[in-house]
Amino acid sequence: MAIRKIREMGDPVLNKKCKEVTEVTPRVQELIDDMFETLYEAEGVGLAAPQVGILKRVVVIDVTGEDPILLINPKILETSGEQEGYEGCLSVPGKSGMVTRPNYVKVLAYDENMNAFELEGTELLARAVCHEIDHLEGHLYVERVDGPLVNTADLTEED
Ligand code: NI
Hints:
It contains 2 helices and 8 strands; from the N terminus they run αβββββββαβ. The chain is of the alpha+beta class. It has a 5-stranded antiparallel sheet with strand order 1-2-3-6-7. Strands 4-5-8 form a 3-stranded antiparallel sheet.
């Protein structure tokens, strides 16, 4: 396993649409392992393959640090409700912005054996799923921000 370099806003790879994974080859498995390692090293909540320069529909998420979730070819089946909150991205270091997201999502995705499964999430998990799927379409959260980007370090608990 290896830590991969996280691409930052301005890198054109972040604005491209990713391709579906048809088979988890050893190369894709290595990508998945590296993405988890890179996510934990960066202390992030989620990471999408284009953030490490690979245009494949692969997402890793862990909102607690103890619940790794792999989503291959994720598709949103259902959303409901709304949540407003500050959101950040490892590709936009040090910044946060207010983004409205659904408070609940249900997704269809594939695991590393290409078995389909459904995942439901609320609150932070719902936010992370939507954020990461946006990456697969070439979108960054900054396109959805209501108001200015702020320095994450300036945010206080009351925000
Ligand atoms: Ni991101």
